[in-house]
Amino acid sequence: MRTKLLQNSHEFHTTNFKLVHTIGECKRKGSSEYLLNDPMGLKISKLMNWLLICDSGNKRVQIYDRFNFEYLYSIRMKTQPQYVEIEEWHDQCGYYADENSLLLYITCSNQVLIKMKVTVVMEENEKKLHVEELWNTRELLERNELSAEYGLFFERFNQEYLNSVLYVCDSTKRRIVMLNALDGSILNQLFLKRKEKFSSAVSILIDSKKKWILVSEMAGQRVKILDYKTRQLLHSLGKYGKELDEFSYPRGIFLEEKMNRLYVCDASNNRISLIDLDKLEFVEYFGGKNSNMEQVQLKTPTSVVIDDSTGTLLVSDNKLDQVFIFR
């Protein structure tokens, strides 16, 4: 029996979020099921109904139920996971192809990207997680062809390459590297002109409606918007500072498609900034000083995701060792 993709979704018209749950305890590092140590990337799997957290300091990826946030599984790593991307697909009727397996792409602190397949199996009447590594980019790192420590984005089908493509932030060489998602081979590289070069690109995504590539720059203090087809710079948003339209070491980004708003982890300003991509304007922020979120004072937000099926917004905070769930 195949799983049907849920079509229900929520719209986010305001930043007046209420805290409904937390994973981890404030500034209490730990390795138990519900404690975290320097959490980084977040991802939602609608196929498996999972919330995945890169629990970097504990060298593991923690998996929780995305509805009730109960602990499910741990994926043990040899090094610190930084960011995670998932590959799950469904046909034109909205049915998932494989409801028991998920493909993960994980960047690590040793600058190696790993692709793995995780499968839920029954062993002795108990559900367990089977993990199989499919490929990694260690040889590319050794040949100085790719340093993969930061964000990445999975594109289901690329018309130019007639394949699935993985976009990887390579901050060492100030570029975005495009990989064949099937085998990890390099397809192309995205560079900008000298004065426009990426400066510590840490997060990337594609706006399929506007045909844009969006990249956050930690050292550049900006979000850059590139034309998807020409790969030329169209817009550059932000500069260093504390005002509404400024950043201090931005990290993860997330696109809320219905309202066409970009959520940016403005890490050192301790907040999440919102940008209206239709108007190319900063709208508001939350989590920092003088915001309308009284329950939580963020410290160093590193990743933000929205689960539009449940109406929740999730933020990982690297300094507080917590993941906050708002609704």
Automatic annotation (TrEMBL):
GO MF term list: ubiquitin protein ligase activity; zinc ion binding
Keyword list, A-Z: Repeat
UniProt record, GO biological process: proteasome-mediated ubiquitin-dependent protein catabolic process; protein polyubiquitination
Domain of life: Eukaryota
NHL repeats: 234-278
SUPFAM superfamilies in the record: YWTD domain (SSF63825)
InterPro entries registered for this protein in UniProt: 6-blade_b-propeller_TolB-like (IPR011042), NHL_repeat (IPR001258), TRIM-NHL_E3_ligases (IPR050952)
PANTHER family with a match to the protein in the record: E3 UBIQUITIN-PROTEIN LIGASE NHLRC1-RELATED, PROTEIN LIN-41
Protein name: Predicted protein
